[in-house]
Automatic annotation (TrEMBL):
Highest taxon, organism lineage: Eukaryota
Sequence similarity: Belongs to the HARBI1 family.
Annotated protein name in UniProt: DDE Tnp4 domain-containing protein
Cofactor: a divalent metal cation
Annotated organism of origin: Astyanax mexicanus (Blind cave fish)
Keyword annotations: Hydrolase, Metal-binding, Nuclease, Nucleus
Length: 355
């Protein structure tokens, strides 16, 4: 028997040779789902954003053996998705820690240059569609956007004004203003104010506020009680006393919740926004804007949203500096659109759950 095994050994089919995957190329090493879990987008979406950034990141000369544009973008996406230390990101891609730092800021600046293409406030035609979508969702008429602020943690700046970055929760942050669309995209973002700055002050000093003051937009924004009531920015009643005011608050709350949901998706997709950004404040603002551009890019490309984690930002404290003129606008608006209350009441009758 031993002899027969020895004779027939040459006729046996050798086992398939195991080929090691090339881990240096994530496009080849990961399947589409694994690639999305690590870089927050599918391969086709990554290839498209790489092509848009290619001319901005391509090195003119080959001096110093520059990294390929593909590797630069993937390295940055990995950091934005996980918020890991530069040393860990460098070990993953086989480059040094200083190189990772330079690449991330270079790519983020290039992504910020696409801001005008992906983040823009709606024009008159689109505003009409937004009013319909917001009203169908929350039964609040005339809305073209929901505004709110969110804090992105940063390390303590080594500057004399460091304490101005400490927010009301006693940690250092950048206070970011965002306006959302019915599709949970960001139509306006302001990321340059210190954590101690109030949301209302950021809005009062923004270009969007000046546009509304000049009457350039035909619609209203919804904000929480941290904002002052205006003829174009509506806040809830702090102490509703009638059933009509209660319905107004319910419709307001349901509609305005979209901006909080947008922040949740945005931060869950890019975990670096939940972890502490260890850059200078100016560079932190560039990273924040870059993630907002990528968020809108992925929403427009139809990339599925990640599971939303509970936001660690508390509800803003009541802001009670509403002028009488602003309160009069709110009351007049409610009387004019009394059908809103009837729509909300009808929705409860057909079985929609209140807040």
């Amino acid at each position: 028997m031993d002899y027969l095994d020895y004779v027939n050994e040459d006729q046996r089919v050798p086992p398939a040779r195991h080929v090691l995957a090339d881990k240096s190329d994530p496009f080849q090493h990961f399947d589409d789902i694994s690639f999305r879990d690590r870089f927050r987008m599918y391969k086709k979406d990554a290839m498209e954003i790489i092509s848009q950034l290619n001319l901005k990141l391509l090195s003119v000369t080959q001096r110093g053996r520059p990294l390929p544009v593909c590797l630069q973008v993937l390295m940055t996406l990995r950091f934005l998705a996980c918020g890991t230390f530069h040393r860990e990101t460098g070990d993953l891609f086989g480059v040094s820690e200083p190189t990772v730092c330079k690449v991330i800021h270079r790519v983020c600046r290039a992504i910020c240059e696409l801001r005008g293409q992906y983040i823009h406030f709606p024009d008159a035609t689109i505003q009409v569609n937004y009013k319909v979508s917001f009203c169908e969702y929350g039964h609040f008429p005339g809305v073209i956007g929901c505004i709110d602020g969110t804090h992105v943690p940063i390390k303590c700046p080594s500057t004399p004004d460091a304490e101005e970055y400490r927010n009301r929760k006693n940690w250092f942050s950048i206070n970011v203003q965002g306006v959302c669309t019915p599709q949970l995209q960001c139509s306006n973002i302001v990321a340059r104010w210190k954590g101690a700055t109030h949301d209302s002050r950021i809005f009062l000093n923004s270009s969007l506020y000046a546009q509304f003051e000049r009457g350039e937009h035909n619609g209203i924004l919804l904000g929480d009680s941290g904002y002052a009531q205006k003829n174009f920015l509506f806040t809830p009643y702090l102490h509703p006393t009638t059933a009509e005011q209660w319905r107004y608050n319910q419709a307001h709350m349901r509609t305005r919740a979209l901006v909080e949901r947008m922040f949740g998706i945005w931060k869950s997709r890019f975990q670096c926004l939940r972890k502490t950004l260890r850059f200078k404040p100016r560079r932190c603002c560039i990273v924040i804007i870059a993630t907002a551009v990528l968020h809108n890019y992925l929403k427009q490309r139809g990339c599925p949203d990640p599971p939303v984690e509970e936001d660690d930002n508390p509800v803003a404290p009541p802001f009670t500096t509403d002028a009488r003129e602003g309160l009069a606008y709110r009351d007049a608006f409610f009387v004019k659109h009394n059908a809103m209350a009837l729509l909300f009441l009808r929705s409860e009758q057909i079985g929609l759950k209140p807040f």
